[in-house]
Request: fold
Amino acid sequence: MPRIITVAAAQLGPIQRAESRQIAVERMIRLLERAHVRGVEFVVFPELALTTFFPRHYLEDVAEADHWYEATMPSDETAPLFAAAKRFGIGFHLGFAEIVDEADETGALRRRRFNTAILVSGKGDILLKYRKVHLPGHAEFDPRRTTQHLEKRYFEPGNLGFPVIRTPMGGLSGLNIGMMICNDRRWPEAWRVLGLQGVELVALGYNTPSTNTTGAGFEAPHLRVFHSQLSIQAGAYQNATFAIASAKAGVEDGNEMFGHSIIVNPQGEIMAQATSWQDELITADCDLDQCTLGKTTVFAFDKHRRPEAYGPITAQIGAIAPAVWSREGQILSRTADVASRPADSDAD
Ligand code: CDV
Reply:
């Protein structure tokens, strides 16, 4: 019996700062209706799908941004989305800003803010939660930038690892679904942690500007798309998994985001790609048995991985200078501080 699931990336056009969640949710329900007509069983919505990408806006008092966060899920405003998905029996992945009173690693109970996504079953149950680990951008207003990217101001790094869950979805009795958010897709470590849990389908949402907004130099817009797709296609191939990458697209609060949502197979091929800068549903039939070839041959991790050689991946953050060659054969000492991390490094 082939294990086929019909999936969709539900790309969203811009959501302006003044627009309410109610409008965003209505648009998402329209996309779910289209998904239902096309026989879709699982839909991926973008990162921060309910609001504008607010980390581009600097607010001195972070609490002034609290109206962009969700304290409960579902809430009164998002309940219609859950109800529509349940009516159609469609599972979904939804990105949103989460605010919660939660104990931190020291045990102190405090208000915490995360860039979060949830995986919801076709019956409306929340199956899995993920909090974005790789937060790009900066924490303080940066006058050099053309647009601010204040994810480090508005969110803490996620504390739930990179989770995978085996769950029924659509007509399948079980498949392994993993989650990541936006900038995570550029980090092979994130993909590998999912791969090491046997992931078969990676759900990810993103918001990526068409231009480099750091003010640090020109980056051609087509290369911005290329690097996004290169990362997703490589991650899917190297971990023998399908991936559904769903974007926010178009001009939001005067800032252009490149869209180009894609669905990728375990060979790293693009199966479907969005071509508009608006709300758009792209779909694909994913035969999960296509994951088997890669997982049992070139990427049979249990046969071929060499973790004894991978120590620096978890032992250090930044690059350190290599040993220096000398004719006498003596190795001069390495100089950099292994644990150092620039205070407010930018990454976009
Ligand atoms: N939302 C993001 O994480 N965006 C980053 C941009 C800023 C580079 C991304 O990796 O797409």
